[in-house]
Amino acid sequence: MEGVARWIPHTAMTNPGRHANAIAGLPTEIGALIQIIQGVLVHSDWFKEYGLDETSLNSTARTTLPIAERLDDVFRRDSRPLNVKRSADKRSVGTCRYYALMLCSLLRCRGVPARVRCGFAAYFSEGWEDHWVCEYWDSGAEEWCLCDPQIDQMLRQRNQISFDPAKVPRQSFLSAGEAWLECRRSKAAPGSFGHGNTIGLWFVKINVVRDHYVLNGRETSSWDRWREAPPPVRAVGSIESELLDVLAASPEQPLVEIAPDW
């Protein structure tokens, strides 16, 4: 496990703090933890599919809080233990990053190296959609395994997903760096990667930086405000492409601070 132990200690975002005791008694099996997470969270983009009123969403639904504060919200909505599945209207509202963060937190509480990854999933639409997942170290196989705790029964049926969310196939999710290098090598079309109507190499760049940051304990950053970037800056220059090539090939390297240009 040499080299991967750096992903066992909590960051400020994954530390459950005052809720550590509530987590201590939970199962250790990955699938069971995923089901628990699905029973306390609901994704803001899928309100209608869960039978919820979209007009009830507030502006903080996409605000990424530390897990300790997220669990505050979970228990404020329903005070029962975490392993009790809530109805959708009683769950805490978040995004894919929250599902990944929570699984990462639960695994680290058990001494399992785990980390959040930023990239693109192929199982939500025809192209590669901006997405966050959790990656944990399988000590038996001595390899990193991808998990997507957001994939519940509704998503499995709606998107005809057949794989186990605890073992996401590598061909179904590309880290941001992998996506960048595929585009640079002309093996993939930049226009197939993005978030909604924001697609192309510029958005892939956003995720390359965010994935590099998260692997250095920075699960959130000013790059999350990419929607504020005006059209003139939504491009990638040749000089920054060279740096992005390096970060894409080795996102785990020590943090390189990069300030957004907007």
Short description:
With 262 residues, the protein is an alpha/beta fold. The protein has 8 helices and 8 strands.
Keywords, separated by commas or semicolons:
about 30% helix, 6-stranded mixed sheet, two-stranded parallel ribbon, 8 helices, alpha/beta
Describe what this molecule looks like in 3D.
There is one protein chain. The protein has helices at 20-24, 30-38, 67-77, 96-109, 153-158, 176-184, 201-214, 238-249, and strands at 41-43, 92-94, 114-121, 128-138, 143-147, 173-175, 193-195, 198-199. By secondary structure, the chain is α/β, with parallel strands linked by helices. It has one domain (5-249). Strands 3, 4, 5, 6, 7 and 8 form a six-stranded mixed beta sheet that branches. It comes from Rhizobium leguminosarum bv. trifolii WSM2297. This is Transglutaminase-like superfamily protein.
N- to C-terminal distance: 40 Å
Largest sheet: 6 strands, mixed
- The chain-level structural class is alpha/beta
Rounded average pLDDT? 95
Based on the structure, what is the oligomeric state of the protein chains?
single chain
Helix coverage percent? 25-40%
The whole-angstrom Rg is 18 Å
What's the number of domains? 1
Low-confidence stretches: none
* Number of E-type strands: 8
- Number of helical segments with 4 or more residues: 8
The shape, in one word, is globular
Approximately how much beta-strand content do the residues carry?
A: 5-15%
